[in-house]
Design a protein that fits this description.
Layout (H helix, E strand, L loop, with lengths): L2 E7 L3 H12 L6 E8 L2 E8 L2 H7 L9 E8 L14 E2 L3 E9 L2 H10 L11 H13 L3 H10 L3 E9 L6 E6 L4 E4 L4 E4 L11 E4 L5 E4 L10 E3 L15 H7 L1 H9 L3 E2 L2 E2 L13 E6 L1 H18 L2 E6 H4 L10 E7 L5 H12 L3 E6 L5 H5 L2 E4 L12 H21 L4 H17 L4 H10 L8 E6 L3 H16 L3 E5 L15 E7 L5 H12 L4 E6 L8 E4 L6 H22 L18
Parallel strand pairs: 16-17, 16-18, 18-19, 19-20, 21-22, 21-23, 23-24, 24-25
Antiparallel strand pairs: 1-4, 1-10, 2-3, 2-4, 5-6, 6-7, 7-8, 8-12, 9-10, 9-11, 11-13, 14-15
The structure holds 5-amino-5-deoxy-1-O-phosphono-D-mannitol (M6R).
5-amino-5-deoxy-1-O-phosphono-D-mannitol (M6R) binds next to helix 8.
């Protein structure tokens, strides 16, 4: 989603800001822009499309000496993805970038227009700069004018503003959208996530909601909660793969080793949680969005089956406003790859406010969700660049599975022998995620037969139902074909009405869980002429196409092997359709607005 960069210092500001924006590129955007203020000149460049367009547009621009600069990648919310709507938005002497949504912008806009302010864009953001300049003409100093402006805003925001009348400062405000400030002693950097700051600063401050202020070159030490920041910039490369998504599919068996590292001791599960963590917990609520929600839904089956603990799973955007009944003996788990998803973060805040024990399952250390949760476990999947989540999902399911066994150990709901079997299954599941080149080749060939038709049903039962949902989501996200995931048993309650020779059905048929049941459900679709592609260990006459997985002894191993097939199937179909697999249309990697 939208990304922000800010800089105060002597370097070539255009390059610094463009470099920062490049680090945020994978998160998804549809336009970009920069404003540079140096030697009393404020220059702004904006374009639609990729950053390369912006680079071309400002290729002849240079700024020497000290100055301040801001940059932005925009994912359109209010107003189309046009150049005019791209950030920065400017007034007479100031320029602003903003992540989030200003909910009362129409009221403010009306008032400003009634006082003859002229608006160029359709965005909510533009009100900020005009309101600031109006306040500046009334207030005695800049920070008073900026605070007065921020006080008028309702909504979520991370804002950077620069103005010719205070040429050495960047004004900032944060509420609900992430914003960091970093320093290396000589320069100040701002960013909406930590990635662009790695290797550039040695100290960082994660701003809190409600923080409003300004930075000049000497004011960093006045910030609260400054933390050290170490690490070298590791630029992710595709390493010979066609897309980051493909690379991330292939590296799952390696990263899952990291996910489980140190968490299995003496044939039992050992998580970085206090010994009394499970005491007094009688229920679990899991809250997440998208793929992370599918991981949460998978966990429900594992928690209830192994730990005998009642588990409810919520889509985070549906949780917040539903007046949920909060039970004090619940463990509230949020699952998030980025740790910045606005709906999930807000649900977590609500659970914290109600005094629940909260646990984040997250991939990004120091993310907003990790910092907000009372406890956290990291999935250790490494940076995921493909917008369509793959390795984040497998690491989430793996860690949640381990958490289920951990709870079962504490609640003594399964025997030591069964724990040992599960631990073995975990190790074998790592193997199951190794991509078999024959399967990949098969899927490459098969993909050409699945490009038409009016849609796809992905069906599965039990924990293979959330996997079916995830398979359908992957296909939808990158191929733009219509795909739905269903529990197999649900077909005859409505969806089967769509079955005809133009419908594709991908059926997940694990040998070790409800095989006959899903076979019957698949037959019902086959009988109505749908084209059936089964993913299974063995041939089955219901199939038009079969993608064989290796022989496994447990349904969880089959789960991970089938997950790989679904990810590659989506990838190959999308490639055949000529789509940008890593940055699919309309999608953002990190959804920081509700
Ligand atoms: O970062 P999160 O896990 O909180 O993100 C949640 C969803 O936005 C995310 O999983 C999304 O559905 C992905 N594009 C799935 O591929």
């Amino acid at each position: 989603m939208c990304g922000i960069i800010g800089y105060i210092g002597n370097k070539e500001k255009k390059e610094v800001v463009l470099d920062g924006l490049r680090e945020l590129e994978y998160r998804g955007y549809d336009s970009a822009g920069i404003s540079i203020l140096s030697n009393d000149v404020l220059s702004t460049f904006k374009t639609t499309g990729k950053l390369i367009n912006l680079e071309v547009k400002c290729k002849d621009f240079k700024s020497s000496g000290f100055g301040v600069a801001i940059g932005h990648t925009r994912w359109a919310t209010h107003g189309k993805a046009t150049e005019i709507n791209a950030h920065p938005h400017f007034g007479e002497v100031s320029s602003v970038v903003h992540n989030g949504i200003i909910e009362n912008f129409l009221d403010i806009k009306k008032q400003l227009e009634s006082r003859e302010k002229v608006f160029l864009s359709q965005t909510d953001t533009e009100v900020i700069v005009h309101l600031f300049e109006e306040n500046l003409s009334i207030c005695s100093n800049h920070i008073k004018a900026f605070k007065k402006t921020i006080d008028s805003l309702i909504g979520s925001y991370a804002i950077l503003l620069i103005t010719k009348s205070a040429p050495d400062k960047i004004f900032y405000a944060k509420n609900g959208s992430p914003l960091l400030i970093g320093s290396n002693g000589d320069e100040i950097y701002f960013a909406s996530s930590s990635t662009p700051l790695i290797g550039l600063v040695d100290r960082v401050c994660y701003l809190e909601d409600g923080d409003v202020g300004y930075m000049d070159i000497s004011s960093f030490d006045n910030l609260k909660n400054i933390q050290p920041m170490s690490g070298e910039k590791i630029s992710s490369q595709k390493e010979g793969y066609r897309y980051f998504m493909e690379k991330e599919i292939y590296e799952q068996h390696k990263i899952l080793k990291d996910t489980i590292r140190g968490r299995i001791l003496d044939d039992s599960i050992n998580l970085e949680l206090p010994a009394d963590f499970i005491d007094g917990i009688n229920k679990v609520s899991i809250c997440a969005c998208g793929t992370s929600y599918h991981a949460g839904l998978s966990a429900k089956y594992l928690f209830e089956r192994e730990a005998k603990i009642k588990t409810d799973v919520f889509i985070a955007s549906e949780f917040r406003y539903a007046e949920p009944i909060i039970e004090k003996d619940s463990l509230f788990i949020v699952v998030s790859q980025s740790g910045e998803t606005a709906d999930t973060l807000e649900a977590l805040k609500l659970a914290n406010k109600n005094g629940l024990k909260t646990l984040a399952i997250c991939n990004v250390d120091s993310s907003s969700i990790v910092r907000e949760a009372k406890y956290y476990l990291l999935t250790r999947a490494g940076v995921e660049k493909g917008v369509a989540s793959t390795k984040a999902f497998s690491s989430q399911v793996m860690l949640l599975w381990m958490l289920g066994i951990y709870m079962a150990q504490h609640k003594k709901t399964i025997s030591n022998e069964k724990i040992k079997i599960q631990v073995d299954n975990i190790s074998n599941s790592l193997e199951a995620t190794k991509v078999n080149s024959c399967i990949h080749d098969k899927l490459k060939k098969l993909s050409k037969r699945y490009l038409h038709g009016h849609g796809f049903f992905f069906i599965g039962r039990d924990i293979f139902y959330p996997l079916a949902l995830e398979g359908a989501l992957k296909l939808k996200e990158i191929s733009y074909l219509h795909a739905e995931g269903y529990p197999g048993g649900e077909m005859k309650h409505g969806p089967i009405a769509l079955a005809d020779s133009e419908l594709f059905c991908v059926s997940l048929m694990p040998k070790h869980l409800l095989y006959d049941k899903i076979k019957n459900n698949t037959q019902e679709l086959s009988a109505r002429d749908a084209t059936i592609c089964i993913i299974a260990q063995e041939y089955n006459e219901v199939a038009d196409d079969v993608v064989f997985i290796d022989k496994f002894d447990s349904y969880m191993e089959e789960f991970f092997a089938m997950m790989i097939v679904l990810q590659i199937l989506a990838l190959e179909i999308a490639i055949r359709l000529g789509n940008d697999v890593d940055m699919p249309r309309n999608l953002a990697k990190s959804v920081t607005v509700e």
